[in-house]
User: What shape does this take?
Amino acid sequence: MTVKVAVIGAGPAGLAAASRIKKLRPDYHVVVFEKTRWASFALCGTPYYIGGLIDKPEKLMHYPPRFFIEKRGIDLRLIHRVIYIDPDKKILEYEGPGGTGRYEWDVLLIASGARADLPDVPGIDLQGVYKLHHIDDAVLLREKIEGENVKDIVIIGSGYIGLELAENLQRIGKRVIIPTRSKYPLTKLLDPDMGEKLANILREKGLVINYDESLEEIKRKNDRLEIVTSKNTYTADAVIVATGIKPNTEIAEALGLRTGNSGAIIVDSMMKTSRPDIYAAGDNVEVKHVVTDKYTWAPFAQEANKEGYVAGSNIAGKTILFPGVAGTSVTSVKGVVIAGTGLTMKEAYRHGFKPIAAYVEARTKPAYMPGSGKVLLKVIADKKTGLLLGAQAIGGEDAYWRINVVAALLHKRGVVEDLFFTDLGYAPPVNTVWDALVIAGRILLRNW
Assistant: This one.
């Protein structure tokens, strides 16, 4: 008898899982239900589409839908919304262009992702106020702001999307202001000391960010919008709300699945939920953190793809365990790369560690070499054990690979000595003989 697998969501996790199942078990019937018209989409690329670096939204799909249907044998159903699930009878109901239908499944994978976390303030649903959490959002936003009538734009939020949007909108000639309730940019990634340095850098590069301002109301005033914060009032032609995301929890709540503090679905290392034969993967799950061994919500694309791969492997009968996440992330704004992994100092304290940190501002090439830049690096370790806890970096394009080195060590429970003795490559055109990471390890070694 053919095993029937139902997948909810055609994002990175859902299609990674479906593709893996069909690779291992071509005889399985795998149907993917996606409520939108997009499949295998790269949400991280939407700011660059809005800024004109990407000419067509279709390029934000890693593969066109027909690839998954024709080449991988997946029954991909776009514009199909799942409206009911009976986990005991293993039946789901859906609605699509052809009406409603029913599908009987043996295994269910929930890859429903996350949604925009909009502030609950008056005027948030006014015309001219936009969110950005899907390709359809990006298509609408680009269409609305391309004309000359939209010149002044207020972005609410100074996280990844807010900063990337600001840079791309400035590129196409828009005037942008970012009021944010945060005290510095990228608060989930950086400690205050690193955040303040980044704030100064971005200010020098022309980004107008006003900190410690809470959004209170958005009003229509003639043909423009009036944005009222706790400190100022701004007038704009458009408002983009980029205040973050939260996991889609409706399905988890309806099925009574175990959820974590974030509301996301708790899964084990096989990506199984608390109900038999139901898996979950992607931005709607909590997994273990490799440093704390506690559940955390890490909605990043690279993790969603891996979680889908693991879920698909296990559904197909090939056991693979997901080891957890370090929370590694990176962004680039105005030519500045900002990256981090593991725990911040605040998080380390909260989890019972006694963190210490090494700060390094180092050259990326020897002083005698042309094109030498600088990288600002912070590495955090536990004072009692020497266990590496996390790292943050601000610099040029090579800042992120230093964070990747620390991320690899975190996955192996590395200690300060491991960082110091890691055999990093050296040649004058690309690096210094004492890399910033090695210097940080040397500083931290003084505590033992």
